[in-house]
Amino acid sequence: MSTRLNKLLAEFKVLEDPRDRVMRLLDYSSLLPPLPQSERITLNRVMGCTAQVWLIAKLGSDGRMYFGADSDSKITRGFCSCLISCLNGSFPEEVLKVKIEDLSSINIGVAGGANSRANTWHNILISMQKRIRAILAKNLGKSHVEPFPSLLITTEDISTQGSFAEAQAKYLSPDASKVAELVDALKEKQIGAVAHFYMDPEVQGVLVATKHEWPHIHILDSLVMADQALKMVEAGYKTIVVLGVDFMSKNVCAVLDRASFEKVGVYRMASEKISYSLADAAISPKYLQFLEEASRYATSLHVIYINTSLQKKAQSNELP
């Protein structure tokens, strides 16, 4: 396994341009066999990723681990393909020894790999390891229950329980140089920021620390992000950054446009699509077919969750 992992790291290391790394990731995506629809179920979901990810793990008769994975995002499929190419056919204890730091030099995205893509590596790897522990426990006739993610705070220390809590605790004290760099950039360009509660721990840790020196950062529920952005623009800010999924930035744009602030710049966290499973489900062909069939009944009721796309909200508003 170590040879395959080193080969993968070397393969990405020679690609200095981040765009070339993303293209290589897409190449890997094309090599990953798709999971059958019967395996794309909730039980096999990898939680915590921006895109939908499904993962299966099996212990072969040879005592080695074999994985299958799929995603509705090509980039995330590439992550899965890279990990499977390194870990497939390894012994359980070998996979359990792998750490997210071992993959950091692949660096897909911003410098240091510190963004939602780095979090994707972590979530998929941790899910692989969780499934291995569950399989091994079952083979030994033991129950395996992952500890509920918790931060245990005492007067002297903070300890963690569960992998998600470990990731959170890691960024309670973020890199001071990154915080200072962000403060300087926001002050220089007079930027206001609205961010959703659900973001990867590193981003949230840096934002919270930055807010002490630049208070025009608001971490909010999605329902009030646009309202807060409008307040900042009314106070004189000409640029707003939105850290959240697609519909959140579109909501901010729509609210500012309606208030006649069309010239205010609104910037997203990333240029690629940042999907949200509920919003995507509301425009899926299967769901639209369901609505079409339901509309034939006089007593049908169509309820639209507010966290959907502007297009879906507009369509719903036009329903008789």
From TrEMBL:
Task: Please verify whether the record's keywords include Iron.
Answer: yes
Q: Which UniProt keywords apply?
A: 4Fe-4S, Iron, Iron-sulfur, Metal-binding, Pyridine nucleotide biosynthesis, Transferase
GO biological process, alphabetically ordered = 'de novo' NAD+ biosynthetic process from L-aspartate
Pathway assigned in UniProt? Cofactor biosynthesis; NAD(+) biosynthesis; quinolinate from iminoaspartate: step 1/1
Question: Gene3D superfamilies, alphabetically?
Answer: 3.90.1010.10, NadA-like
Q: Where is the Fe-S metabolism associated domain?
A: 10-130
Q: One GO cellular component from the entry? A: chloroplast
The answer, when asked if Plastid is one of the entry's keywords, is no
Named cofactor requirement(s): [4Fe-4S] cluster
Q: Name one Pfam family in it.
A: NadA
Q: What is this protein called?
A: quinolinate synthase
Q: Which organism is it from?
A: Taxus chinensis (Chinese yew)
